[in-house]
């Protein structure tokens, strides 16, 4: 999948005029990219479309307009891009907003060690997630984790095959869940290997 380049980004001034429509289309698109795994974890599988949206949103929120600063954001988000042999997903750990901060932190910290307990199943293939370093320590864990799943050619072929069962499993000692993806989600993930470079357009 082609990396995002400066020309793919319209920037806050232009984005303001197209944001509502673009955001609506991305939210609809993400419906087939999100998977809830139990009631405390969900994943959103990223690609050019979702990452361009995130860049435009952060530029808008932070009022980033200089070419140098925009280029820095592009570089950061390109690290999350699927590759010719991998899928990429942002993993979110959720807690109750009604909890006190200390209780929310304690709930999050139950997931320490999660980086060894997430698997993507594609038919008979089990792929263990690779977590971005630095987002967890021996006694702390971030609520947002960036994961990558490196697929063999056989796993990619299985993903591209209609009807192949795809699921995400978490086998952490305090959280054991497994969720099956829809057929629409399988097809969307398989599309990441087509390298069409389609970003839904800004027009």
Notable traits:
203 residues; five-stranded antiparallel beta sheet; globular; alpha+beta; four-stranded antiparallel beta sheet
Describe this structure in words.
This protein is of the alpha+beta class. It has one domain. 35% of the residues lie in helices and 24% in strands. The chain contains 6 helices and 9 strands. It has helices at 12-30, 48-62, 67-78, 101-109, 153-160, 183-191, and strands at 34-37, 41-46, 86-93, 118-122, 125-128, 130-131, 144-150, 166-172, 175-180. The strands form 2 sheets. It has a 5-stranded antiparallel β-sheet with strand order 1-2-3-7-6. A hairpin with a 2-residue loop joins strand 4 (118-122) and strand 5 (125-128). Helix 1 packs across helix 2 and helix 2 (48-62) runs antiparallel to helix 3. It is globular. Mean pLDDT is 92; it is low at 196-201.
Distance between the termini: 21 Å
* Overall pLDDT score: 92
Can you list the strand order of the major beta sheet?
1-2-3-7-6
Spans of at least 5 consecutive residues whose pLDDT stays below 50 are 196-201
Number of strands: 9
SSE succession:
HEEHHEHEEEEHEEH
Strand proportion: 15-25%
Structural class: alpha+beta
Helix content: 25-40%
The global form is globular
Q: What is the total domain count?
A: 1
Short note summarizing the structure:
With 203 residues, the protein is an alpha+beta fold. It contains six helices and nine strands, in the order αββααβαββββαββα.
Strand and helix map with partners:
Layout: H1 12-30, E1 34-37, E2 41-46, H2 48-62, H3 67-78, E3 86-93, H4 101-109, E4 118-122, E5 125-128, E6 130-131, E7 144-150, H5 153-160, E8 166-172, E9 175-180, H6 183-191
Antiparallel strand pairs: 1-2, 2-3, 3-7, 4-5, 4-8, 6-7, 8-9
